[in-house]
Specification:
The protein is α/β, with parallel strands linked by helices. Among the domains are: 288 residues, ABC transporter type 1, transmembrane domain (ABC transporter transmembrane region fold), CATH 1.20.1560.10; 73 residues, 3-Layer(aba) Sandwich (Rossmann fold). Helix 2 packs antiparallel against helix 11 and helix 7 runs antiparallel to helix 10.
Length: 579
């Protein structure tokens, strides 16, 4: 089965939940077509009544006019109901697919998010879903209406004059040849257009989030060059995608001209021979126009469907990404860890070709403090990723409270950790809501107390609405230090048995850091703490120091032991920390 057929079958599964609306839409589409097709008969009859040699029958003419008005009115109502049903299906399917895509995003492993451009993911979940839901559903409706119109007009034309009808039928299918030619050349172009649209969305997202850095380093021209390059490629792919479809209008006009010429010539000959009336010729010309219209539009519908299928392919490609390994059926909930952590014979690498951690062993007793040190980019966050089970070990095991973490549900495991990351994250909402993110059931008094422990209370009280002050996306209206303080308050509120601090105080001034370190000392008592450390005080007071270089753990021990060893830690300490 071709890829396009597989995509269409998947879309149909989403539409099945809206069968009543699809059926209603098709029913009223059929009613609309039937009423529209009957109008030319009435117009033709009206013309024949007007040009009769005898006295004009005004009563019949007014009766015909009344019927036309009624038919047009019912046609408009039918089209309105059809559009309502189409919108219900379109937006309903878009919502369901977007829900599935977003829920799937939440279940994807961290390595997927780390290895894909965020803007492209956004483009697939937002723009591509809109494109395919609009294109596929509306395209199918147009196709159905078009087929009914072709069959209906053909029946009416044959009932009026079969010979002239055959002229129309023989000439019009040339449009199908044009549509087939267009379809063959547009699909791959629309795929490239959709992919490049995701690329440009990713670039814009990246630049908006890092505008300060761009301006601070005078990188505006380079950014413009990058954007111009991607935008130029988007333009080229878009132009190529519509190049063939742009031949539709002139080619269909040419075919229409042939049809009208044929109808005019054969109609005139038939009228001269008394085989057809002037009114019937008028009806025939109207039917010829309605008959050719779906053929004229078919290339546009095919183009729209090709674009929709290309976008649907990108969406389903995302939805089909392998989810994070599911918890075992017999996985247990870790209610409250005692803080004991063990790593036994752990092997791990992000890339199977490059060895990272080999046969690593570590035993951490409750309440111990572990410092992870090393040069920038050495892979200090790897240990954290493994402890949180964002990544699974290749070999060996990690135990928390004596349980292999693979036998613990991820949710309960992570609830036993409190994290303060180097890259802060705050949601759009009030300051109180952001602090309570660590404990949604916390009272206002508990939130205030946590803020006080994190030394965030004073600056919060100076905000316009205090704890009810709404902060923008990612805390854009706060300083980096203030954002860090709120993230620390979030952990203070939760007070889990195990703490993970990833360069937690790197964005806070020295004075504030001293206060926070005091709060940390109090918070760490009786709690196991893993600290990605850059501070001398943190390193010296750690029970165990893990020294990393080039992504590997090369030394471990306490501060005095590692200095006596005079290895890499000794060099690192004297180059960065010694006075």
């Amino acid at each position: 089965m071709s890829k396009n057929k597989i995509i269409i079958k998947r879309v149909i599964k989403y539409i099945k939940g809206y069968k009543i609306f699809v059926f209603t839409s098709l029913l009223f589409a059929a009613i609309s077509v039937a009423l529209t097709l009957y109008v030319p008969i009435l117009i033709g009859n009206g013309i024949d009544y007007i040009i009769k040699k005898d006295q004009v029958d005004f009563e019949q003419i007014f009766l015909i006019l009344r019927n036309i008005v009624i038919l047009v009115g019912f046609t408009s109502v039918s089209q309105w109901i059809m559009n309502l049903c189409n919108n219900k299906v379109t937006y309903g399917v878009a919502k369901n697919v977007r829900d599935e895509a977003f829920f799937h995003l939440e279940k994807l492993p961290l390595k997927f998010v780390d290895s894909h451009e965020h803007g492209d993911i956004v483009s697939r979940i937002v723009a591509d879903i809109d494109q395919f839901s609009d294109g596929l559903l509306m395209g199918f409706t147009q196709l159905f209406t078009g087929v009914l119109t072709i069959l209906g007009t053909l029946i009416f034309m044959l009932s009026i004059q079969a010979n002239i009808a055959l002229v129309v039928v023989c000439i019009t299918p040339i449009s199908l040849v044009v549509a087939s030619f267009i379809a063959k050349h547009t699909f791959s172009m629309f795929q490239k257009q959709s992919a490049t649209r995701g690329e440009i969305t990713s670039l814009i997202t990246e630049m908006i989030g890092n505008q300060k850095v761009v301006q601070a380093f005078g990188y505006e021209e380079e950014v413009m060059k990058r954007f111009d390059d991607v935008n130029e490629r988007l333009k080229e792919h878009s132009l190529k995608a519509v190049f063939y479809s742009s031949t539709t209008n002139p080619s269909t006009r040419f075919i229409n001209g042939l049809v009208y010429t044929g109808v005019g010539i054969f109609g005139a000959i038939s009228a001269m021979n008394g085989m057809i009336t002037i009114g019937q010729i008028t009806s025939f010309l109207s039917y010829a126009n309605q008959y050719t219209k779906p053929f004229n539009e078919i290339s546009g519908v095919v183009t729209e469907l090709q674009n929709a299928i290309a976008c649907a392919g990108r969406v389903f490609e995302f939805i089909d990404e392998q989810e994070e390994t599911a918890d075992f059926a017999d996985a247990v909930n870790l209610e409250h860890s005692n803080g004991k952590v063990e790593l036994k014979h752990v092997d791990f690498s992000y890339n199977q070709k490059i060895e990272l951690i080999k046969d690593f062993n570590l035993s951490v007793e409750p309440g111990q403090r572990i410092a992870i040190v090393g040069p920038t980019g050495c892979g200090k966050s790897t240990i954290i990723n493994l402890l949180m089970r964002f990544y699974d070990v290749d070999e060996g095991e990690i135990k928390v409270s004596g349980n292999d973490i693979r036998n613990i549900t991820r949710r309960s495991l992570r609830e036993n950790y409190g994290m303060v990351l180097q890259e802060t994250w705050l949601k759009s909402g009030t300051i109180a809501e952001n602090i309570a993110y660590g404990n949604p059931n916390a009272s206002m008094n508990e939130i205030v107390e946590a803020a006080k422990q994190a030394y965030a209370h004073n600056f919060i009280k100076k905000m316009p609405q205090g704890y009810e002050t709404v902060i923008s996306e990612d805390g854009g209206n706060l300083s980096q230090g203030q954002k860090q303080l709120l993230c620390i308050a979030r952990v203070m509120l939760r007070l889990p048995p195990i703490l993970i601090l990833d360069e937690a105080t790197s964005s806070i001034d020295t004075r504030t850091e001293i206060k926070i370190q005091k709060a940390f000392h109090k918070m760490m008592k009786g709690r196991t703490s893993f600290v990605v450390a850059h501070r001398l005080s943190t390193i010296k007071e750690a029970d165990i120091i893990l020294v990393m270089k080039d992504g590997k753990i090369i030394e471990q021990g306490n501060h005095e032991y590692l200095l006596e060893k005079q290895g890499f830690y000794y060099e690192l300490y004297h180059s960065q920390f010694a006075i």
